[in-house]
Amino acid sequence: MASARRRDWRIAAALSIIPGAGQLYNGQAAKARYYFLWAVGCLGADVLFFLGGSALGRQWIADGRLILAMIFGMIAIVVFIGLLVYGLFIWGSAAVDATAGAREISLCGEASPLLRYFHL
Question: Are 44 and 80 in contact (CB under 8 A)?
């Protein structure tokens, strides 16, 4: 019985320390998978890009290709910051969606299937 269940938005927010855990608490497995895979995917790709890019840059510097290493470094910084900001945006959006979903479940019995995104 969906109308009998209640969800505490504070628990949903606290569980969102892991992207998607708040959605699992609300019973929204598809949304949980979306938020988890995108947040962890972006942040994981960011770490791998940083590790691989720094190794490649060091190799190019050792080989004497300084200009190529500098150009690659500038591009790498933009990509790194972009992936980091997007990953954190998705993570914040997961917390916003989990708390809003918990409030909707408590009020009307079910949460909206639409994705909610963090905004200022």
Answer: no
Determine the Cα–Cα distance for residues 107 and 34; give it in Å rounded to an integer: 25
> Could you tell me how many residues make up the chain?
120
pLDDT digits (tens, 9 = 90+) for 39-69: 999 999 999 989 998 999 999 999 999 999 9
Task: Provide the pLDDT confidence category of residue 2 given band limits of 50, 70 and 90.
Answer: very low
Single pTM value for the model: 0.83
Going by pLDDT thresholds of 50, 70 and 90, the confidence category of residue 120 is low
Query: Distance between CA 7 and CA 28 in Å, rounded?
Result: 12
**Do the Cβ atoms of 12 and 101 come closer than 8 Å?**
yes
Q: Are 28 and 111 within 8 A, CB to CB?
A: yes
Q: What is the C-alpha separation between 102 and 12, in angstroms, rounded?
A: 7
Distance CA 70, CA 78 (A): 13
Q: Rounded to whole angstroms, how far apart are CA atoms 79 and 81?
A: 6
